Amino acid sequence: MSALQTSSSDVPTLLVKIFGKDRPGITAGLFDTLAAYSVDVVDIEQVVTRGRMVLCALVTEPSADLEGDLRSTVHSWAESMKMQAEIISGTGDNRPRGVGRSLVTVLGHPLTAEATASIAAKITKAGGNIDRIFRLAKYPVTAVEFAVSGVAAGPLRTALVTDAAALGVDVAVVDAGLYRRAQRLVVMDVDSTLIQDEVIELFAAHAGCEDEVAAVTAAAMRGELDFEQSLHARVALLEGLDVSVVDKVRAEVRLTPGARTLIRTLKRLGYQVGVVSGGFTQVTDDLQDRLGLDFAQANTLEIVDGKLTGRVTGEIVDRAGKARLLRRFAAEAGVPLSQTVAIGDGANDLDMLNAAGLGVAFNAKPVVREAAHTAVNVPFLDTVLYLLGITREEVEAAEMHDEQ
Q1: What is the number of alpha carbons within 13 Å of residue 30 lying toward its C-beta?
Q2: What is the CA angle 204-209-215, rounded to 5?
Q3: Overall average pLDDT of the 4-8 stretch
Q4: Which H or E run contains 272?
Q5: Span 201-205, mean pLDDT?
Q6: pLDDT tens digits for 304-348?
Q7: What pLDDT was estimated at residue 163?
Q8: Fewer CB within 10 Å: N-end or C-end of the chain?
Q9: Pairing relationship of beta strands 340-344 and 307-313 according to DSSP bridges
Q10: Known catalytic residues?
Q11: Which residues of 239-273 are buried (b: 16+ CB within 10 A; e: fewer)?
C-alpha cells in the first residue's frame, strides 16, 4: 500500500445520507449545500425505488469549526425539500472489498422474497459479501444482479445453483470484469432452442411417421441413444418424401418467444451470432437468411430427382461436432473461446455448452441443466441478455431507436 493510500484511509470523512420522495434537483441541491464548506467528494451512490430516493455522499470532513454548521445547514436544506438527512462521522473510504469478484444474476417469474433470502444467505455462507444489487429487468421476468466480493465465481456457482430450481429461480454466476461485456460470439442450438419445434418431427408429420420419430428423438436428447445412429434411423423414415415438403416445413417453423429480440439486440451490440443444429441445412440456411445470422451449420438431407433419399450427406453435426463448430466459429470471428456463449437444451449440446465461456441450458433436460454453467427455465429466449448484464431498458431503447 502506498503512503497516499495509507494516509487517505485515516482522513476524517462524513457520510451524508438523504432519503425521501424523489424529485428533480435533489442531487444538485445537496452538493450546492456542501460546496460552501469546500469538502471533497470521496464516493456517491443514489438509488430510486418506486419514487423514493436514497442518496449517499461520502465527503471529506470540513474544518472542526465548520462541521456543526455543515450538519445544521444540511438538515435545514433537507427539511426544506421535505426530505430526511442523516450524517455519520468516520474515517477514510469504503473498506476494501474481499478478493474475488463475481456477478450473480437471478431470474424469477416471479422472484419471491423466500428465494431472494435463500440466495443472499447462500452468498454469505460461501464467504461472499453483497456489495450492490441492481434490477436488470421487470419483464418478461424479474432479473436482478448481485455484485459480490470475497469469493470466486466457481465456488459461488456451486453454492448457488444446486437448489435454484427448487426455489423457482434461475441463477447465473460469472466473473466480474470487462470480459463479460466482451463476449462477442453467441452460438445456439436450433430445435427447441431458437425454434419451438423439432425439425425432423415436422418432416416426419408429412411422411406419416411422426410418433415413431418423436420417440427416437426424445431418447436421443435424454442421452439414451447415440445421436448419429438415431439420426440415420430417423432420416431413413423420410425416404421418398417430395422436395416440396422442404418449403412447407420452413413455413411451419415457429421461432421461440424472444428469439428475434435476442438476435437483434446482440447484433446491435456488435456480437456475432450463429447456430449449430443436428437438424438440417434445408431449414437452418433459411433461418440464417431471415435472421441475419453470421454462422449456421447443420446436417444436409440428400435429395435426388426431387425426392428425399432417406440419407444425409457431408459432415455429421452431432454432440462432438457442435463443440467443434463452436471452436471453428470462434476462430473465424476472432473471439477467444472464453468469451463465447453457447445455448442449448439437449444432451447433444453438452460438449458445446461446456466448451463455451458461458454455457446456458435453455428449458433443458435434467442432465443438461445439471452440467451447464447456468440454466434458464422460462420460455423467453431474450432473457439470456440479462445473463450478459444487458438491461430491459437498454433493449427497449434500442428497439425504439430502430423504429425512428
Answers
A1: 29
A2: 90
A3: 46
A4: strand 272-280
A5: 95
A6: 999 999 999 998 999 999 999 999 999 999 999 989 999 999 989
A7: 81
A8: C
A9: unpaired
A10: 189, 191
A11: eebeeebbeebbeebebbbbbebbbbbbbeeebbb
Pair 18, 30: CB distance under 8 Å: yes
pTM for this model (two decimals): 0.83
Q: What is the pLDDT of residues 384-397, one digit of tens each?
A: 999 988 999 888 87
How many angstroms from the chain centroid is the CA of residue 297? 24
Residues 87-111: pLDDT tens digits? 999 998 876 666 788 999 999 999 9
Name the one residue in this structure whose C-alpha cell is 411451419.
252
Q: In the block, which residue shows the cell 444432451?
A: 347
Residue from 194, 201, 196 nearest 220 by CA: 201
Residue written as grid cell 484511509: 9
**Gap between the Cα atoms of 197 and 110, Å rounded:** 26
Q: For residue 180, what pLDDT is reported?
A: 66
CB atoms within 10 A of CB 169: 25
**Gap between the Cα atoms of 16 and 33, Å rounded:** 12
Nearest to 267 by CA among 186, 387, 360: 186
Range list of H helices, 126-226: 153-161, 164-167, 199-207, 210-221
Does residue 57 contact residue 30 with C-beta atoms inside 8 Å? yes
Quote the CA–CA distance of 275 and 322 in Å, as a whole number.
9
Which of 186-190, 273-277, 366-370 has the weakest average pLDDT? 366-370
> Which cell goes with 350?
453438452
DSSP 58-102: EEE---HHHHHHHHHHHHHHHHHTT-EEEEEEEESSSPPPPS-EE
Torsion angle, CA of 64/66/68/72, rounded to 10 degrees?
Answer: -160
- Return the pLDDT at 9: 64
CA gap 36, 73 in Å, rounded: 10
Q: How far apart are CA 179 and CA 2, in angstroms?
A: 28
- 142-149 and 129-137 strand pairing: antiparallel
Task: List Cα–Cα distances, 210 to 39, 191, 198, 237, 377, in angstroms.
Answer: 75, 16, 11, 10, 26
Grid cell at residue 183:
463476449
